[in-house]
Design brief:
The chain has 166 residues and is of the alpha+beta class. 15% of the residues lie in helices and 36% in strands. It is built from 2 helices and 6 strands. It has a 6-stranded antiparallel sheet, with helices on one face.
Length: 166
């Protein structure tokens, strides 16, 4: 069951993550499923006027692969932070649409490890669609399988570990 009644927009994401523009690389969470499925889907539009594109590379802008990986890490982080917010009834314990302050959420995720392969170039105007699925972990560390796609083309794939602190 998708635990989001509607897509979670940037203001709700800012309640869950400490990142802000220009390094917040998730615009929208489109789906979140709790256990046993434990997965999250999100997206980010690579704006043609994003400041990083002016220097990477002049004349032929390409979205840096490291920023695709950062977007995947933020998506994995969102999954790790949302999982402890599921109550015994299976519903979210925080109304993310009403919460506007990061203090409303007691949990924070920290990047622990990354193993991601970049498979294709991402260009200005592309919509990156992120997927994160919990595949294991121990204690506060969650191992998450991740992928990023533009349309039907997978542009990055791998795994990320997130340590969730409270």
């Amino acid at each position: 069951m998708n635990l989001l009644a509607a897509p979670l927009e940037r203001s709700g994401i800012e309640v869950l993550l400490p990142h802000r523009s220009p390094i917040l690389l998730v615009d929208r969470v489109t789906a979140f499923h709790g256990p046993p499925r434990s997965e999250l889907r999100a997206s980010f539009r690579v704006a043609a006027d994003h400041p990083i594109l002016a220097g990477h590379f002049p004349g032929r802008p390409i979205w840096p692969g490291v920023l695709t990986i950062e977007g995947l890490a933020q998506t994995a982080n969102l999954l790790g932070v949302l999982l402890p917010l599921i109550g015994e009834d299976g519903a979210l314990t925080v109304d993310l649409a009403a919460a506007r302050e990061p203090e409303a959420v007691a949990h924070r995720g920290l990047l622990a490890s990354v193993e991601v392969k970049l498979l294709h170039v991402v260009e200005p105007g592309d919509l990156l669609e992120y997927a994160a699925r919990l595949v294991g972990g121990r204690g506060p560390v969650h191992r998450v399988e991740v992928s990023a796609a533009v349309g039907r083309r997978v542009v990055a794939r791998g795994s990320i570990a997130v340590a969730v602190e409270s």
